[in-house]
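Cross-check.
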Amino acid sequence: MEKISDEEPNTSAVQQHSPEKVGESLAPFNPSDPKVVEMAIMLLNLNDGDVVYDLGCGDGRFLISVNHTDKMINLVNWGKN
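Predicted model, tokenized:
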């Protein structure tokens, strides 16, 4: 996978959900920036037969992105529907 850019990931969503602002929700939906997802997949250096677990997978964007690689990866989501 080629490098997208040297830009820092957008952390505004993390700052938006600081502990003081979360309120009753201990795990608010905080979707990953597509550039962060791509970087994470690259850093995982996945190989055929690997298993990727995504706990609290939200909308599944990470697993969907892993599924679009050319590897035969086993995907497991674990989230509340």
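The longest strand covers residues 51-55. The chain has a mean pLDDT of 77. Passed to J.P. for a second look.
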